[in-house]
Amino acid sequence: DKMITFVFLPLLGIHSTAAVTHSLKYFYTGSSNVQKFPEFVAVGLVDDVQIIYYDNNTKRCEPKQDWMKNITEDGYWKRQTQGLIRTQQIFKDDIETAKSRFNQTGGVHIFQRMYGCEWDDETEEVTGYDQCGYDGEDFVSLNIKTNTWIAPKQQAVITTYKWNNDRGLMKSQKNYLTQICAGWLKKYVDYGRSSLVRTDLPSVSFLQKSSSSPVSCHATGFYPNRAEMFWRKDGEEVHDGVVKGEILPNNDGTFQMSVDIDLSYVAPEERNKYECVFQLSGVNDIIHRLEKTRIRSNESNENMWIILVAAAALVLLVLNCVIGVFLYKKKSKR
Ligand SMILES: *[C@@H]1O[C@H](CO)[C@@H](O)[C@H](O)[C@H]1NC(C)=O
Ligand SMILES: *[C@@H]1O[C@H](CO)[C@@H](O)[C@H](O)[C@H]1NC(C)=O
Ligand SMILES: *[C@@H]1O[C@H](CO)[C@@H](O)[C@H](O)[C@H]1NC(C)=O
Q1: Could you identify which of 23, 30, 126, 304 might form a hypothetical disulfide with 91, taking C-beta atoms 3.0 to 4.6 angstroms apart as the criterion?
Q2: Do the beta carbons of residue 113 and residue 43 sit within 8 Å?
Q3: CA angle at residue 227 from 322 to 122, to 5 degrees?
Q4: The organism sits in which domain of life (predicted)?
Q5: Cβ neighbour number for residue 94 with a 10 Å cutoff
């Protein structure tokens, strides 16, 4: 128990952040034969904070943030719901189409679409994107510059012919991605300003499974997710033996991340020269020097580790099972 040290962070000067890029993202996932997973799920995110949820069971588009409930104009929720009911049907057809293109008759399959836009509130620059994936691989994606669909997969070429020759579709899609999307994004940012344009500092702790495992510097509870974390020694960033994790969403609208370092080749007396640095835009760096007494270890407190791992796994399940395939896709894309 003595090994556990909760780290209380001093409140460092918080400055309001200057120019920022805001984003609006939609993820649609259609699946067939995936046990205990709805056959159609839609989520929308503003600045990586979830704003809406819809699935084939509820057949209702629901707000995921309190401030979203304030959007009531022109039957907003009814229209979103109706649109998603139509999309759900289209996804059912899309999965069947994709299956036939790959000569598949049954089995587990997933069709996904990811689209949205980013808006730089200083330069006013807007960039849109739209792409589909099938069974975890790119299927078709829109080249926004030329406004044409391209197919990384032979089986999707027919789809690109069809869409590229549908002038009405190409026009309305371009209009959405370059104009309408950014319009909504600005509206959402306005409604959610007090919650979206805030700064939450994380609590940072050192975790280690056993005395020979890598030491993990774990930061949780921060907002926004434009954060960096790294290990430093003698004022310089360390890369050797360092594994950076992804920034993951917590269920309460904050984020967590961790960066691991393997110190097994470092002499014990050298280890306290290492520091974990957490950087969040507009806030002074949060620096923690590695001290043995600060490390929460599995050996001294098994439960804490299990709780943390379980919490991380839950977060992964809740959101990442919807978007994970896309993150993987984006990473593996050259
Ligand atoms: C939604 O999809 C799941 C998985 O396919 C299915 O079990 C469930 O019955 C569907 N819900 C409705 C209301 O159709
Ligand atoms: C919703 O709007 C009301 C009236 O403008 C405002 O007082 C309230 O704070 C808003 N709620 C949220 C969660 O932003
Ligand atoms: C599907 O079957 C057709 C006809 O047998 C064949 O020409 C085609 O190459 C097959 N496609 C795939 C992806 O196996």
Answers
A1: 30
A2: no
A3: 95
A4: Eukaryota
A5: 20
Strand partners, 4: none
Q: Whose CA is nearest to atom 14 of ligand 2?
A: 67
* pLDDT tens-digit readout, 207-247: 998 888 999 999 999 999 889 999 999 999 999 999 999 99
Q: Strands 137-143, 126-134: parallel, antiparallel or unpaired by DSSP?
A: antiparallel
Ligand 1 centre from 94 Cα, in Å?
Answer: 17
Q: Is the domain 203-295 a CATH 2.60.40.10 member?
A: yes
Q: For residue 85, which ligand has an atom nearest its CA?
A: 1
Let me know if the fold of 21-197 is the same as that of 203-295. Answer: no
Pick the residue whose CA is nearest to atom 7 on ligand 3. 103
Which residue CA neighbors atom 1 of ligand 2 most closely?
A: 70
- CATH 1.10.1200.10 at 21-197, yes or no: no
Asked if residue 39 has its Cβ within 6 Å of ligand 1, the reply is yes
**Cα–ligand 2 centroid distance for 241 (angstroms):** 48
Q: Does the CA dihedral 313-69-91-329 come out positive or negative?
A: negative
Residue 117, token pair as written in the block? 């836009």
Q: DSSP letter string over 221-287?
A: EEBSS-EEEEEEETTEE--TTEEEPPPEE-TTS-EEEEEEE--TTS-GGGGGGEEEEEEETTB--EE
Q: How many helices (H) and strands (E) does the chain have?
A: 7, 18
Residue with CA nearest ligand 2 atom 4: 70
pLDDT band at 316, cuts 50/70/90?
A: very low
pTM > 0.85: yes or no? no
38 CB near ligand 1 (under 6 Å) = yes
